[in-house]
Amino acid sequence: MSMNQLSHLDDLDLQILDILIKDCRTPYLEIARICHVSGGTIHVRMKKMEDMGIIKGTRIVLNLPKLGYDVCCFVGIYVDKTSSFNYVFEELAKIKEVVELHLTTGDYSVFSKVICKNITDLQDLLMNKINTITGIQRTDTFISLTQPVDRNIQL
After folding, report:
1. What angle is formed at CA 113 by the lines to CA 24 and CA 58, rounded to 5 degrees?
2. Its domain of life (predicted)?
3. What is the pLDDT of residue 58?
């Protein structure tokens, strides 16, 4: 969040965000009760923060292993040249197992987070979907063994 956007937020906005970071399903009326304001005030503040792009939406957090997705990994991707980036991003975005893409500094051009059902599916994904994209030179894959921390930043 830029300092300009932060300057447009007051203590009530930050309190609302703090409540929603802890549980995004908290009803507006409950937030209003906690903050000692009306429900309408919460609606107005939420709309303001959405319009500013501070709140981009809400997500459900899935327990992926319970749905049969047992492999989480990160794929460092080497892109052959700068002019290939947009095409590579577009093609990677079409792959359902790719859940995050990051343009990075360092060794990799792109770093992606990938979720698969098992190692066989990961192998198929790498060999037949990712590494066949024109513009990708090669990849390095890192399998996540566990995720001991998963949280939003605290404001």
Report:
1. 15
2. Bacteria
3. 81
Q: Which two three-digit tokens encode residue 120?
A: 């066989």
How many whole angstroms separate alpha carbon 110 and alpha carbon 104? Answer: 6
| Residues facing residue 138 across a β-bridge | 78
Is the distance from CB of 102 to CB of 110 less than 8 angstroms?
A: yes
pTM for the model stands at: 0.81
The structure tokens listed for 59 are 């997500």
Residue 82 DSSP class: G
Q: How far is CA 15 from the centre of its chain?
A: 23
SS3 for 121? helix
Lookup: tokens for 85: 């980036």
Distance between CA atoms of 152 and 64, rounded to whole angstroms? 19
Letter string b/e over residues 17-32, b meaning 16 or more CB atoms within 10 A of that residue's CB: bebbeeeeeeebeebb
Residues 6+ apart with CB under 8 A from 84: 134, 135, 136
Alpha-carbon distance 123 to 118, whole Å?
Answer: 9
Closest Cα to residue 115, out of 73, 65, 76?
73
